[in-house]
Amino acid sequence: MSDTTEETPIETAEGIGADGLSPAVLASVGSVALALYFYYVRGDQQRGQFVGFWPVTILSLASYFKLEEIKQMLAERDE
């Protein structure tokens, strides 16, 4: 750990590639649009509310997998 080229956590996080439009974000935006369509256009309020819960689940799963990726990268770096 006395290596002088050690990266700070901020540099490590920046190197991961935080592009804002991942497939999970696009899927979440699409499901919000679909929920609004069902709720207001089709008048199926129950289905609109059900589909409206999808973005939270999609983004939660994406966050979990991204954290696991970061954890692996940090473990490999410390080896």
List the helices and strands and how they pair.
Elements: H1 9-15, H2 23-41, H3 45-52, H4 54-78
What does this 3D model show about the protein?
With 79 residues, the chain is mostly helical. It has one domain (20-78). The chain is built from 4 helices and no strands. Helix 2 runs antiparallel to helix 3 (45-52) and helix 2 (23-41) packs antiparallel against helix 4 (54-78). The longest helix has 25 residues, at 54-78. The chain crosses the membrane at residues 20-40. Keywords: Membrane, Transmembrane, Transmembrane helix.
Give a quick summary of the entry.
75% of the residues lie in helices and 0% in strands.
**Which regions contain 5 or more consecutive residues with pLDDT less than 50?**
none
Q: What is the subunit organization of this protein?
A: single chain
Give the end-to-end Cα distance, rounded to a whole number of Å: 10 Å
Care to count the β-strands? 0
Order of helices and strands: HHHH
Query: Any idea how many domains?
Result: 1
Descriptive tags:
single chain; 79 residues; mainly alpha; 4 helices; 75% helix; 0% strand; transmembrane helix; membrane; transmembrane
